[in-house]
Amino acid sequence: AAAADRPRKLLVAGDALGNVAKLFNSVETQASKVGGFDALLCAGAFLAEDGGAGSELAAYVKGSSRVPVPCYFVDSSPALLQAAPGGRQMCENLHFLGGYGLRDICGLRLIVRSAEDTEGADFVGGAFTQQAIAGLRSSSSSACRVFSPLRFKEIMAYRTVTAQTFRGLPLADFTSAVRGSILESLVIKLDQQLHPGSVIRDAVVGQCVTGARRGRHMLQYDWLRDGTRVECKSAQLVWNKHKIIWVAHFRNCF
To answer: What SS3 string covers 144-195?
Structure first.
């Protein structure tokens, strides 16, 4: 029981691009400095850019080289996704997480997506749909991370892998429309707190205060507070690196 309750130490790596020997050597170097890791999560492109396994990986799969720590990786290689869409163990301590799905690693529940974002396509080879991702998100409120090779650099740029999430999901992985919807929800809730007892409802469904039709990607939004029209003119989510939280900044909202 004590072992199960102890804190876990996970190391997150980016693109290996087939240079697995260099990756594992770096892991061992870090472990010698800060202590061993329970697992290595490779959130970038693991295989070489051409999708080939390469001689380095073959050495580990054949057993002539040893993976130093349990390693879990994603990759958008169509051949690998078609061969093992649900994931598989490549060799001792080396695990492919598959195309997409929920995975539990060291007590951490992950939403995994390895494939490319192809609009309107079914999950075939290297393609998946937004419906699949939406289904995964709704199936687990405790999901903590979304790993995507094609978006990893963007996610890392916002430090999302460590802490910048909204309800457990990385903001960098949402579309601008979804982030706009989050802002709208935050602004309306703030207005409700500032005016307790007021009735808040949509002013004109699908319209802005100017009367123009409100498109999906428009961030300006308006609603009625006891018959008074309120407009959200400007709002943004800002990362506070000192408090390590997302902060909603509002300008000229009320």
So the answer is: CCEECHHHHHHHHHCCCCCCCEECCEEHHHCCHHHHHHHHHHHHHHHHHHHC
| Predicted TM-score of the model (pTM) | 0.49
> Can you read off the two tokens belonging to residue 182?
């989050």
CB contact at 8 A, 46 and 114: no
SS3 170: strand
Q: What is the C-alpha separation between 254 and 234, in angstroms, rounded?
A: 10
DSSP code, position 172 = G
Rg value, the chain, Cα:
22
What SS3 class is residue 78? Answer: helix
Contacts of 171 (CB under 8 A, 6+ apart): 158, 160, 164, 165, 179, 182, 237, 246
Going by C-alpha positions, the residue among 104, 114, 116 that lies closest to residue 70 is 104
Q: How far apart are CA 220 and CA 214, in angstroms?
A: 8
What tokens were used for 79?
A: 């051949």
Which residue type sits at 31?
A: A
Longest CA span, the chain: 74
Domains of the chain as residue ranges with CATH: 2-165 (3.60.21), 177-251 (no CATH)
The C-alpha atoms of residue 102 and residue 219 are separated, in whole angstroms, by 32
In a 3-state reduction of DSSP, which class is residue 30? helix
pLDDT digits (tens, 9 = 90+) for 196-243: 788 877 665 555 544 555 544 444 456 777 877 766 554 555 555 665
Helix (H) or strand (E) holding 10: strand 10-13
